[in-house]
Amino acid sequence: MNQDLDSLVINFDQSGLWMLNITLAIIMFGVALGITIEDFKRLIKNPRILLTGITSQFILFPALTYLLVIAIKPSPSIALGMFLVAACPGGNISNFMTQMAKGNAALSVSLTAFATLVCLVMTPLNFQFWSNLYEPTEQILRTIELDPLVLFRLVLLILGVPLVLGMLVRWKKPELAMKLMKYLKPFSIIIFLALIIIAFSQNFGIFLSHIHYVLIIVIIHNIIGYILGFYFAKTMKLNFQNQKTLSIETGIQNSGLGLLLVFAFFNGLGGMALLVAFWGIWDIASGLLLAAYWSKKESTKIVEA
Fold first, then answer.
1. For residue 12, how far is the Cα from the chain centroid?
2. pTM score, two decimals?
3. What is the pLDDT of residue 302?
4. Residues 242, 49: contact at Cβ < 8 Å?
5. Which class for 135: exposed (0-12), middle (13-18), buried (19 or more C-beta within 10 A)?
6. How far apart (Å, rounded) are the C-alpha atoms in residues 245 and 182?
7. How far are the Cα atoms of 19, 49, 193, 257, 262 from residue 23, in angstroms, in the given order?
8. What is residue 211's three-state secondary structure?
9. For residue 55, what pLDDT is reported?
């Protein structure tokens, strides 16, 4: 089974890769339209929340991912996908989920902005560190020329540049920014899901015959992210609203960026591509379920009060 998955290749042509690049840039641009300098100032004024969010996403979650890999010993290519997902920043859809869950939407947007800047360094660093620490994935990395500088440039181009451009539009043309946000967010998410489907449409048989290898792993990995974010925020004595926000920010990863990196640097390595793609679908579903639960719980509290 391991050899099967590790030698499996998911076909994704160059035009599809460019579409994925553009879509991710548009999604980030759409999120950045809602970000202002005040969001950064708000976090800097409250360093405890900032440190809790960054530690949860970029230190604790990758470390727990490593322990999970050690415990379950998945196929090396699946383990590599797990390390990649854990190294990515929080997913941009987390802002919508937080609002739905009646969390701290302003904090979610602020953390998305800050995490995007931090990930320019931490995503390549985390991925290289944890992947090289685990011997089976380190062997795969030996066969691939993964230049950290090239990885940094790609993340900068896809996330950093749209972030700056979006914030500039919001600063210079706030009314235009608000109008664009209404259309860009739902449109870009639909397009992203369509791209995942298109990416696997040519490999549908492969997807169906191998998805069971990553199904339970993704669900467990994702739940660990939610639990970690919630209880770490609780340990740091943040209020319930912020606990929900940190849970969503940690549990929902930017799997779109992960999928792009799989096709750009790993030639659609089977186990990796399957895990990251299914994560992209699953965390939207799980995020909606969790947000709906918290939303209903809050509504019940209001009625009872």
1. 21
2. 0.85
3. 41
4. yes
5. exposed
6. 22
7. 6, 30, 10, 10, 16
8. coil
9. 95
